[in-house]
Amino acid sequence: MKTKSVFIIANITKPDYLSALERAKKVVENAGIAARTFTDPTALFTEAEKGKPLCIIIIGGDGTVLSAVSSAVNNGLSVDTPILGVNLGKIGFFSETDVDGLEAAFSRFLAGEYRLEESAMLKATAGENEFVCLNDFMVAKKGFSSVAHFEVLIDGYSMGVIHSDGVIISSSTGSTGYSISAGGPVIGPNLDVILVTPICPHSLTVRPVVVSFDSRVEVVMRSDCVLHSDGAQLADLPEGDRITVQKAHTRVKFIRVTDRNVFKLIREKLA
């Protein structure tokens, strides 16, 4: 009979990460479950594929979750194991609890008093390269003082050439990320769509667009641009290059032990 286990990873750049990591390990072990700690997300998810832990506890902020999940998926690893987020950051949309509430949250998880919230992901194809993100892809201008020029097509229909600082193509989950700061709408829970949000467009007629999750969004570069994914720079996109963004078949499962009011979270976290 295999020993039950829980994998734990913490953002080592956070001032209190070590005490939070030790506390999480103690909570797990006090429940009679083996706790394994990691510092490398790729190693963590590699072992998760082999060992099938009960869950993965990720300690940090939203950036920690994005980094861990993106690192796993873009290295061809599964993210099927449910994630329990413990917030050490400022906002913590992905997190279910803080360090003080971890023991209670974990106890409810073990008792089966939880639900899994699945977040859809997006896939971008640029030439022969393919990337997957949880929140968003961003095509941005090459230099600080320049302007990006690109054409956006939705299922082959052109929105025209846009002149702006860039464009954000986000999942429903990503609607509360960079997109909301750029004037994009909040997408309600359990609604899978793709959101296209121009960043500081040089025209008042260019507005955010919400399209079907089955749509194909293409961006054709009319100037040199840069591709970012979940806050990390991925590749240069010279003039004439094209990227295609579509739904990915990968979903991330977050453990929820309480009811979540996303609108209340926005009001409290982004005040």
User: What's the story with the biggest beta sheet?
Assistant: 6 strands, antiparallel
Overall number of domains = 2
The overall strand count is 16
* CATH structural architecture of the largest domain: Sandwich
Structural class of the helix and strand makeup?
alpha+beta
Q: Please estimate the helix content.
A: 10-25%
Q: Which value, in Å, is the CA radius of gyration?
A: 19 Å
CATH superfamily of the largest domain: Probable inorganic polyphosphate/atp-NAD kinase, domain 2
Q: What's the number of helices?
A: 6
CATH class of the largest domain: Mainly Beta
Overall outline: elongated
Rounded to the nearest angstrom, the distance between the terminal CA atoms is 50 Å
Strand order of the largest sheet: 6-5-16-13-8-9
From N to C, what is the helix and strand string?
Answer: EHEHEHEHEEEEEEHEEEEEEH
